[in-house]
Design brief:
CATH class: Alpha Beta
Distance between the termini: 26 Å
CATH architecture: 3-Layer(aba) Sandwich
Mean pLDDT: 90
Strand content: 25-35%
Low-confidence stretches: none
Number of helices: 6
Number of domains: 1
Shape: globular
CATH superfamily: P-loop containing nucleotide triphosphate hydrolases
Order of helices and strands: EEEHEEHEHHHEHEEE
Strand order of the largest sheet: 6-7-8-3-9-10
């Protein structure tokens, strides 16, 4: 399995709306992303970055073309297969989507509970470890209402990473973070790639983290216009 590319996109087209309101958002995208490394999707608002990310993450149905993620074809896959695949992925969104009645620890624990019951002590230790790595060692028991916007976002990052996903899909994950926190998050994502072969695909407008990317793909009007690899 290790030699299978993380993501393969072939002849992908995607539309929103119907009838006279139907609008094409993705045009003839072909793309292969190998395992490991950090790939950034860039482009102006409305260029199709988030649409492409959510299609890869099986959060939207593939209409035309093919997407294979971790060797599984998404076009035509049944819901059971898609649920199983999503459990191998980690999602980080610009909106942190934390449960306000749960502590930071409990919110991150939810990232493990989708995989079923496990050893509670080991799970809690894993949660605290990832929170510590993200500079939240003194915020384990804080409710979201008592955290800053940047701290909430780092809790959301911890929730996505705690289960050691094979692919991390991140939509503007550093938008609410200061420079130091952004650097911490992106360096942690890169370390996961180097140590565990995890693959990160990130949508961002943040110029501060471009130098950390292994690959930068630029979209305009639903098309790939540039594909640059950093050595």
């Amino acid at each position: 399995m290790a030699d299978i590319d993380a993501i393969q996109v072939q002849d992908l087209n995607h539309f929103f709306g119907a009838g006279d309101a139907r609008k094409q958002a993705i045009f003839d995208i072909n793309l292969t992303i190998e395992r490991g490394g950090l790939t950034i999707l860039m482009g102006p608002s409305g260029s199709g970055k988030t649409t492409l990310l959510t299609l890869i993450g099986a959060l939207r149905d593939v209409q035309f073309g093919n997407i294979r993620v971790l060797g599984r074809e998404l076009n035509g896959a049944d819901q059971s297969a898609l649920v199983q695949l999503r459990r191998r992925l980690g999602f980080i969104f610009q909106a942190h989507n934390l449960h306000e009645s749960l502590t930071a620890t409990q919110n991150v624990m939810m990232g493990l509970q989708v995989h079923g019951p496990g050893n509670a002590a080991k799970q809690r230790a894993a949660v605290h470890h990832i929170l510590d790595l993200l500079g939240l060692s003194d915020r384990w028991d804080y409710l979201p209402g008592n955290l800053s916007g940047g701290q909430k976002q780092r809790v959301a990052v911890a929730r996505a990473l705690v289960s050691n996903p094979e692919i991390i899909l991140a939509d503007e994950p550093t938008a609410a973070l200061d420079k130091a926190s952004s650097q911490t998050v992106v360096e942690l994502l890169k370390a996961l790639g180097q140590r565990r072969g995890a693959t990160t695909v990130m949508v961002t407008h943040d110029p501060r983290i471009l130098e950390l990317a292994d690959r930068i793909i630029t979209l305009e009007d639903g098309r790939i216009v540039s594909d640059q690899r950093n050595n």
